[in-house]
Amino acid sequence: MTVVVEGVSKVFPGKGSDEVTALSDIDLTVGDGEFVSLIGPSGCGKSTLLRLIADLDSPTGGTLTVFDKTPRQARLDQDYGIAFQQAGLLPWRSVRANVELPLQLHKVAGRKERVNELLEMVGLSDFADRYPDELSGGMQQRVAIARAFAEKPKLLLMDEPFGALDEMTRERMQGELVRLASESGAAVIFVTHSIPEAVFLSDRVVVMSPRPGRIREILSVDLGRGVDRGEGLREDTSFFERVSAVREALHGGAPTGVRGVETR
Ligand SMILES: Nc1ncnc2c1ncn2[C@@H]1O[C@H](COP(=O)(O)OP(=O)(O)OP(=O)(O)O)[C@@H](O)[C@H]1O
């Protein structure tokens, strides 16, 4: 298993009785090469869950493993790539140098070619020698995505990575992400606010509810993966059925009678 989350809770201390239970009793497993999206209203704990997996914070209760290791060990071993909402680029390094950074740290050979390939993938070949503050927010995010992919990780943790992109670029990046993840066999845990985005990308969509943050439902999308999914999928009836099922789950109704959508 790539990620196993068992009985995890996270309480942030507040003043007196103001503590916030960000997550309560979360159980989730993510298989090798599986694409799982987390969706739910603001404040339901999506980012917190991702941060616990990435060892950027620790749980108050329960256990997590990443590739059968503690999150700390997986972080130290750099077992995954991260692309979060804030691009987190180094302002003094060019676009090329930002993408190259993880490869340089690990003294990977053939870096120049790999960086060129990555920049092409995110459509930024012409901006390789620019600096982050010369780019739009969406372009900065694309640099961060290229960097997350640099080492072909077997797990990618992504927190609304496409939030700042225009709709056309966003759809193109979604297609690229599905293709890359499927080709490299990487598992992805992907936080989003967009129902169609979650359905397009995922094998399973985890619907969360707030106060306290819990998993309300996990829906299998089951529309085929990666290269099998052309852009035409977005206009397919089965796609709309899944979108409706996720919407109903978000609003608390049981998605009854929706063909092909499992709820568990
Ligand atoms: N460092 C912190 N200290 C105190 N409370 C926090 C902290 N981080 C998150 N929280 C609280 O935990 C809850 C879950 O936050 P989280 O950011 O995980 O939600 P989210 O689902 O990612 O929200 P959004 O969709 O708005 O990004 C919120 O109520 C938030 O205020």
From TrEMBL:
Pfam family, one: ABC_tran
Amino-acid biosynthesis among keywords: no
SUPFAM superfamilies: P-loop containing nucleoside triphosphate hydrolases (SSF52540)
Organism in which the protein naturally occurs: Branchiibius hedensis
Superkingdom in the source lineage: Bacteria
InterPro entries associated with the record: AAA+_ATPase (IPR003593), ABC_transporter-like_ATP-bd (IPR003439), ABC_transporter-like_CS (IPR017871), ABC_transporter_ATP-bind (IPR050166), P-loop_NTPase (IPR027417)
GO molecular function: ATP binding; ATP hydrolysis activity
Domain ABC transporter: 3-235
CDD domains assigned to the protein according to its UniProt record, in alphabetical order: ABC_NrtD_SsuB_transporters (cd03293)
Protein name stated in the entry: NitT/TauT family transport system ATP-binding protein
Alphabetized PROSITE patterns for the sequence: ABC_TRANSPORTER_1 (PS00211), ABC_TRANSPORTER_2 (PS50893)
UniProt KW keywords: ATP-binding, Nucleotide-binding, Transport
